[in-house]
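User: structure tokens for this one?
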Amino acid sequence: MRLHNFFINEPIGDSSTISISDSGLLNQWRNVLRLNTGSLVVLFDNSGFEYTAQFITLTYLKAELVITEKRKNKFVPKKEIFLFQALIKPDKFEWILEKGTELGVSHFRPVISQRSIVKKFNLERGRKIVEESAEQSGRGTLPALYEPTKFEEIFSAYTFPTIALDPSGKPWTSKDFENTNALGICIGPEGGWSEQELALLREKKVPIISLGSQILRAETAAVAVSSLLLL
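Assistant:
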């Protein structure tokens, strides 16, 4: 039987037991999943290791667990992907966070572009979605999720190789990225990049890449390019 996965804030390391008082976790364990003394779970502490743990006690105030096995988590992304995603409608952006986490995206940076209708981002909710998606997919480390930044500020803050997706770009070829260990990907909003933004990309010598002749939604493009690079 597959065990449930949970991220915890406390580092486990080589400890043989651990005590947890997080009220949200305690409620989920006791009242949602109906776990009890003797139940097994898998704990992640964002270290890249995973721990099988068994409940010794589980009350509404505290849980105590004994660590029965420690092992290296097998979910290691093939590349370090930094997704610069222009803000879009909240439900669509959250879908990108969910699926991108499952695929192995390492960093999410919301971007405020000229055609972004949405200008704000709920960082706390976004991090919760990322955590739940990592637990579901068995990912042992959480991707980083940052505050939104303006489009033009991307290029002064980051120096690793970066591409941008746009239908006007040259056709995608996977071999161009076979030997790339870290890559930034810029994806525009619902209306695409503005002419001024495309001009800035060319000025900064950022390759503009097309995934095909069809027009993809922003969230489709994000999942498509992440799949091409990570699966």
